[in-house]
Amino acid sequence: MTDSAFQPTQPAATAVADEPHDDYLWLEDIHAEEALDWVKAQNALTEDAFQDADFEQTSAKILAILDSEDKIPGVVKRGAFYYNFWRDAQHPRGLWRRTTWESYTSDATEWEVLLDVDALAAAEGTPWVFSGATLLKPADPAELYERALVKLSPDGGDAVTVREFRLSTLSFLAAPEGFELPLAKTSVAWDGPDALYVASNFGPESLTKSGYARTVRRLERGQFLEEAPEVFSVPEDHVLAAVSKDNTRGFKRVFATDAVDFFTSRTYVLAADGSWELIDVPEDASVDLHHDWLLVSPRLEWQLPGQTVPAGSLVVADWEAWRAGSREVTFIFEHDDAASLEGWSFTKDFLLLNTLRDVSSKILVADPQNGWRTRVLELGEPLSSSSTGAVDDEDPETANDIWLTTTGHLTPTTLLRATLCGDDSVDILYRDENPAPEAASPVVVKSAPSFFDSSQFEATQHFAISADGTRVPYFQVSPKDMPLDGDNPVLMNGYGGFLISLSPSYLGSIGATWLSRETPAGRKASYVVANIRGGGEYGPRWHSAALKENRHRAYEDFAAVAKDLIARGVTKPERLAASGGSNGGLLMGNMITSYPELFGAISCGVPLLDMRRYTKLSAGHSWVAEYGDPDVPEEWEFIKTFSPYHLLDATGGSENHNGTEGEHERRAPASYFWTATSDDRVGPVQARKMAAKMRELGYRDVWFHEDLDGGHSGASDNRQAARNSARSQRFLWHCIGQ
């Protein structure tokens, strides 16, 4: 097998932007005794202040919801069984298990436990966190699935060990007989029963600057990892390399991916002669090979001979004709200003499209046998989310079966299943003996319970006008007949990055806790979700509008929503809180430093904040395409305008965007930073440094908490997740709800 992937060249020498002096670099040594002593001291202060009776009650309510046995156990079909991973009060680390369809649809599902993660953790003395399993499809459809690769994290981080698991014996198969890979940020794929494609840390020069694998090896059973031959590699300044295999019967293919940056990649298919054949599509496009079809969705406008494919659209071409030079495509989904494509999947005879229109779901079904004609799958209500996916397109009994899920801010999730037909109907899978014709509709498989009384609330959508005149949508969940006198407590949430959309979803724990709170004057709380630029709510253009030098638009959008809430009389700054994590934590950092006059309190989780050094911390270099490269002087000039850590000036002031340009004042909303020591994606150090610097500069009401494990999600089990959420809520309510 020959690696014909792009190989690195020596870059020309360029100037590197100066790094501002940093008094808190010592906090970047994650496990240093001095740094951990600081963390323990901050944790003690925060816990003493906010872990009171209110905190315990809130935590208990959230945990009861997370552990509820009435939740819908999501399943994925593999062969004859339906697989699920489940956590509850008795199994906080979780159970990997499976069942039959007949049992799954019964009132009392009987599960076969494959792996008890709590028992494994106890037996091995390691607090394992289940990170997924990859099953090997048997060559004969009549055979049962027998082999799996199980990923386990020791602390909830992205680094995992990979072990081979036998489903017939419910046991791990130890090396050298079985596959067993050491702890690393590893991706792995089966290549038949006795070989794997492994992208991992193989030692010096095997990782990219982002900390991911830059080389892939093919490992055979019984072979030492260091003996496995390299089959694919990418340059060190790219994000990662990966090799995967499509085991669709009759269309088996091996793919290699060179992730150039977070939004551009090159996809190769293994040719008959063992070389890697580049799929000739734009590097910014999402690409999919399914059976005889090539599907392409470009992130930027794509010029083809005689036609233009708008950004965010989806087109299909005959794969063999494309390889031969044809550039004829058929449009399946054409992006417009109000719509976006969220994803797609195939049944045997149809293509399912999950789309959004003004941030509400719209499901389309395309028929390849009828010129890819699409029809709308009527499902759900306005301001709701619906999604669909194939059950198992290779099983003749389920070939055109689909899953359907519906949810809304005030509507618990419902799981349905249906069979697609060749006409404009959707048939139910299981009918009564003599159903009426009008009864032909998807059958409800499972329904989640209500966790709070939603009848006293209403969900509405509004649009704020941002600084450049852009209409920015947001969802508001508030008590019915709420007085618009500005005295209502409100919690805003947002993200605004990486093409991620915040569509409606059931507010189970938020409804049972935050929306159930009342001020001393009897005012109930509201919850707001801002669909700001940088996300994917309106497709790639919505995302691209807030990249790099235009990053400020995401923050202007969030501020515009806050201002609109105030102008409409929903709330006032003293009653307005906001929360966000990861990229949403960077959003919160910019609200703290650039829009302090709009908020009474901010909760900032697992955040990016030091944008001068973010590329040198954990996986930060992989996000250069989103934010820019701070080592490039020209790019640091715009990055520093949204680097919260540097927007704090030497006197403890922050630029105040209140209409008086250039004015500074010593103020900020009450601020709470939370993170996890084991977060190996963003890392805990940025939250540490921001909190320490704000404290030193004299900002009041600055709080910090860091859990040891939990990774980037901040939680390794439901109890930790509940306590993290409760601590944040307790802080925010203390600040705006009194």
Automatic annotation (TrEMBL):
Native source organism of the sequence: Neomicrococcus lactis
UniProt keyword Protease, yes or no: yes
Protein known as: Prolyl oligopeptidase
Coiled-coil residue windows: none
InterPro entries, A to Z: AB_hydrolase_fold, Pept_S9A_N, Peptidase_S9_cat, Peptidase_S9A, Prolyl_oligopep/macrocyclase
GO cellular component: cytosol
Keywords assigned by UniProt, alphabetized: Hydrolase, Protease, Serine protease
EC number, UniProt record: 3.4.21.26
